[in-house]
Design the sequence.
């Protein structure tokens, strides 16, 4: 089934972002995933985990199911805890790939009627509907990819896009 027109652009961006995240972390050593430019910034591990958590939340709000243990440290509003034990980079990338596949399938199989339903509480929806929530969360996804691209450069790796 084709992606409903109202979320087609967002679905395409989610798809692109899936590959961009992989490029943003390619070659970065596992121990560097915990590096931060200062005490107020998140590290790669936290950003990737939070992006997975947000995609999981969207999947759930769209009526599908996918879960992964260990994401509670990445929930909306959670702060990075330097003393926490975070998942390792390989585990996060595996979860990213799995979650992204489920999200893609969910977006391909949702109906326009379902997207017209009122958005549940949580992140704001500009149109008050699930369709608007999809747009907000793809923006959120892209925002965090920008953070990853910055951290990649800060760590001395070449850029994601050239």
Sequence:
């Amino acid at each position: 089934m084709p992606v409903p027109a109202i979320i087609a652009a967002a679905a395409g961006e989610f798809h692109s972002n899936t590959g961009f995240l992989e490029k943003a972390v390619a070659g970065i050593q596992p121990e560097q995933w915990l590096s931060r430019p200062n005490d107020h910034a998140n590290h790669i591990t936290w950003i990737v985990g939070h992006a997975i958590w947000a995609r999981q939340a969207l999947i759930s709000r769209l009526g599908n199911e996918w879960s992964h243990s260990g994401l509670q440290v990445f929930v909306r509003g959670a702060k990075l805890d330097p003393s926490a034990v975070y998942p390792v980079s390989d585990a996060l990338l595996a979860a990213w790939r799995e979650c992204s596949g489920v999200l893609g399938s969910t977006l391909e199989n949702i109906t326009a009627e379902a997207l017209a339903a009122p958005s549940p509480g949580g992140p704001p929806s500009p149109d008050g509907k699930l369709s608007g929530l999809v747009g907000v969360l793809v923006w959120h996804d892209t925002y965090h990819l920008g953070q990853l691209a910055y951290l990649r450069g800060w760590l001395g790796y070449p850029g994601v896009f050239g």
